[in-house]
Amino acid sequence: MLSIRGIDVAYGRIQALFDVSMQVSRGSLVLLLGHNGAGKTTAVNTVSGLLRPMKGSIEFQGQKIDDLSADQRVKRGIVQVPQGRLVLSGLTVRENLLLGAFTRNDAPEIARDEARMYDLFPILKERQGQMAGSLSGGEQQMLVIARALLSKPRILLLDEPSLGLSPRLVSEVFALIDRLHKESGLTILLVEQKAQMVLHMADYAYILQGGRIAAEGKPERLAENAAVRAAYLGA
Question: Is the per-residue pLDDT at 215 higher than 90?
């Protein structure tokens, strides 16, 4: 579904990614692991169109998307949940949620999908009239994931959804992501640092180090690698 081929990405004169190649198959959950500053966010921002590569190409469903803007990529089904739980604090929970449907014009189906989001996230139904800025960190994370799902993604890019959450909420968010993948077959590219907690969920994993792919493979194979365990799994 997604093919990243030899991309270089820079911020001005500072290069952040070097010859990065990745593949995400339809219906799979692929992990992108690495320490702070490894280039993980740069990679997903490039896929979603917030950054442009200096070299290489990106294909989605067999078509090059290098020239597409971020909003055009959303319309194709490439939807990102960025770091930081970016809710609009002055809008209600429901108003934030419905922003996810801004590219759609199928009102009856939007209403059905909104109801489905409330089934998936009952707390959002309870608080739909509440200002989004007053939600807890975990509730805001659920809201931004629900908002992304309302845009009907073909692939969901999740950038460190556990960031800043308590251990209990981290477990809840990861369980939700696992459920979305297994029950709906949603294709997911998940960026994380908490490798031990998410490796078992994945079909395949890549490890970024210094802007380069340092290792890749099936999770069980990576877990057997002593160097990978020592550097990324705390073992």
Answer: yes
Give, in order, the Cα–Cα distances in Å from 29 to each of 13, 39, 172, 231: 33, 19, 17, 22
Write the burial class of residue 229 (CB in 10 Å: 0-12 exposed, 13-18 middle, 19+ buried). Answer: middle
Domains and their CATH numbers in the chain: 2-87+153-233 (3.40.50.300)
1 DSSP 8-state letter: -
Residue 142, Cβ density class (10 Å: 0-12 exposed, 13-18 middle, ≥19 buried): buried
Cβ contact 202:169 at 8 Å: no
pTM equals: 0.91
CA distance to 51, 82, 110, per residue, from 31 (Å): 20, 15, 30
Displacement of CA 115 from its chain's centroid (Å)? 23
Tens digits of residue pLDDT in 40-73: 999 999 999 999 999 999 999 999 999 999 999 9
Tokens of 90: 């002055």
pLDDT tens figures, 145-171: 999 999 999 999 999 988 888 888 888
Q: What are the backbone dihedrals phi and psi of residue 188, each rounded to the nearest 5 degrees, phi first?
A: -135, 135
The pair of three-digit structure tokens given for residue 19, joined into one six-digit string: 């010859």
Inter-residue contact 201 to 220 (CB < 8 Å): no
